[in-house]
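Same chain as my last thread, 548 residues:
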Amino acid sequence: MVGSLDFSLPRDLFSILLLQVSMWGSDSFTVLAPSEPIVALLGADTALPCRVAPAMSAEDMELRWFRSRFADAVYAYEDRVEQTEQQLVDFRGRAELVKDHITEGRVAVRIHSVRVSDNGMYTCFFKKGNDFEEAILELKVIGLGSGPNVFMVGPEDGGIRLKCTGKRWFPQPEVQWKDVTGEKIPSLSEDKTQDDDGLFQIEASLVVRDSSWREVSCTMKNPFFGQEQVETIFIPEPFFPRTSPWKVAFAVTFLILGIFIGAVVFLTWKEQQERKRVQEAQEEKEKESQAKESFKKELGCYCFSDRRKELYHQDWRKAGLYADWRKEHFKAVAVTLDPDTAHTKLILSEDRTHVSSKENVSQNHDGPTQQEQEGTFSVLGQNCFTTGRHYWEAEVKVGTEGGPGTRWALGVCSDTVKREGWFVESPEKNFWVVAYKEGEIRVLTSQSEPLSLRQCPHKIGVFLDWETGDVSFYNMADGSHIYSFTRIQFCGILRPYFSLQGPGTSVAICTASDHTENCPDSSLKTSVTQSRSSDVGVPQEANSLLPP
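reply #2:
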């Protein structure tokens, strides 16, 4: 029996060695992913990396990133092309494959404009022939909201009730009260809700009865990221209840005196404001009367025009007409250019309201243009928009010596867009712009369609309506409508965008006024281009607003 065991042991070892050698010679592999969660800020871009070991090319592999079900892909790659028909709707246009090192077996899926719904577990799946492996990774979405905001609600149960509020946090933040020594104070109550985007709104309450707690702070901390925000409130001693009658009487007297003084100041201020309002109203009425008389003389059709404007204001969102009337619903913005975002081929004025091109456009029609060789020359405005309705105006000029590479473009873009080298300005890349090229005004979409306009605009108004997802462009010289991007789902920060190329090309940002002379002066000559007239679709309800 012992001899039999001695004989079988070498044979087993030999079998194990043969199995190991066969595995070394095969195409078997392992998929590896980060063991630690990947942290991404809400609205930013992030990447979900995976790699194979040992290192080998993954160009001919089937690659897939998915959430809970294999068929619902975040991103699918097979036969060296993207498989969009298997992709979840939420990730179409937001997910792309980063394959700079795919020949080494290292790839990643980049997700643009991260949302709360992107938070959670992901699986990356690699398949080669009949062999396949997968790995699991986690994405943590962080939303650092506003707050905390601390304020006194009023007296309650022999003390002062404080309230601490915060908005748009993810995940739910930890709320902590502390006194001036740093000692923690438990909250009396905490209420939390989630909005339609999945972000948390927090409200915590505390009743302070100890008069030694003159300073109380509220801290909101992200439980995963560790970043916290703090606000401190000072509670005056008279707000604490006292048993001494004279102190109570003094507090009441002080409060009454304060109310009396405040009432006197308020009434005085209100009277001054009323006088100012009446004076301004009278001046405005006189100006309006003069303007109406002038308009009546000019058109000879005052009643009809006045009715047309009234109809426009009743349903102004449905008609893309009358830029001057539309401005009454938007806030004028004094746009200034951000030198940190300007291409080296652009020249900015000292007041940052004028930009021009300093390069020469290649005239070689058979070879690549200078734009394709050196990239797109662009600059962003310093202004950031996350809500509201805003508009600004810009005057564009094209030099008479401009070649086929001469162009300009303006509009808005996301703060997170990629602008290195040559890039595509399209809504799919979070650009909403119109452009001039080769004597035509074009809408920069995936088809880059030209517009048929009565004349080539030189002074353009950009109207941004964040809540309705609308970006509209107007020829401010005659008030005609150029184009509108509608029903856009904005996410993150938007900034004004300007791009120009070719000698003599420039863009001057105008001040918030209706007069052309408020545009920065420029010595550049303006080339005259001929464009076609455009047919703008107007809803049936606004037909009466069309010019006669």
